[in-house]
Amino acid sequence: MRQIAMYGKGGIGKSTTVANLTAALSEQGYKIMQVGCDPKHDSTRMLMSGRFVPTVLDTMREIGEEKVTLDKILYMGYNGIRCVESGGPEPGVGCGGRGIITAIGLLEKLGGYHENPDFVFYDVLGDVVCGGFAMPIRQGYAKEIYLVLSGELMALYAANNICKAVKRFGERGQTALGGLICNSRKVDNELELVEKFAKKIGSKLIEFIPRDNIVQKAEFNKKTVIEYDPDCNQAQ
Predict the structure, then answer these.
(1) C-alpha separations of 68 from 16, 59, 218 in Å
(2) Backbone angles phi, psi at 148, to 5 degrees
(3) Residues 48, 15 contacting (CB under 8 angstroms)
(4) Among 50-54, 121-125, 132-136, 206-210, whose mean pLDDT is lowest?
(5) Number of helices (H), then strands (E), in the chain
(6) What pLDDT, on a 0 to 100 scale, did the predictor assign at position 99?
(7) pLDDT of 184-194, one tens digit each?
(8) Mean per-residue pLDDT for 144-166?
């Protein structure tokens, strides 16, 4: 079982990238679980035909932790992908990162990993790498880290901050940076910028995803690109 955390600045297209990646892997016959680790709880939406599934924290608040069962927090999405959303506290109350700690702990306690999926993806907000948001790597759940970024300044800035955290935990032998995925924003010299950044941090660019309106068309139809138009260039 490969456990992978995908980090990136909010609004960079990380969740769209992760959902399309898990959909593609599922088409290749792999068993997948995707865990949304963001209070917005929209990571798995396109895998669930546009549905926002109940979050772990909301379910716990409504019925109490002792009454939560696996079928109340884990949902079957596109092509059998197991979907979980950690959720977060009410706006202005508590730490958003705590939802990740609680959700993954409960998922483990209830046997969410027992079917031994081939891949588990943690889709993590990466604007601020606080203790909670770093939890998948700090606790050793995710052994591989990939960063979704663009050539925009703030995306590179956020990616650099995340790299500092990954390096800190990597020195303890807990995790490793697998590489960068550029979700293009059509910034001038974007490919060159991101490749230079990758070299500076001692990593590599795994993929450069061109900007394409097919992504918005697919989302309008509540689907990933893989499901909406599997033969298009973006799906490939």
Answers:
(1) 29, 7, 33
(2) -100, 125
(3) no
(4) 132-136
(5) 8, 8
(6) 73
(7) 999 999 999 99
(8) 90
Rounded Cα distance, 86 and 93, in Å: 16
Are the C-beta atoms of residues 46 and 18 closer than 8 Å to each other? Answer: no
Q: What integer pLDDT is reported at residue 170 of this predicted model?
A: 65
Q: DSSP string of 47-67?
A: GGTT--PPPHHHHHHHH-GGG
* Consecutive H or E run containing 225: helix 225-228
Report, as residue numbers or ranges, the catalytic residues: 9, 14, 40, 127
Question: How far is the C-alpha of 209 from the C-alpha of 184, rounded, in Å?
Answer: 6
The CA-based diameter of the chain, rounded to the nearest angstrom, is 54
- For residue 102, what are its two tokens? 């609680």
Is the pTM higher than 0.85? The answer reads yes
Using an 8 Å Cβ cutoff, are 27 and 76 in contact?
Answer: no
* Per-residue pLDDT at 97: 67
CA–CA dist 234, 236 (Å, integer) = 5
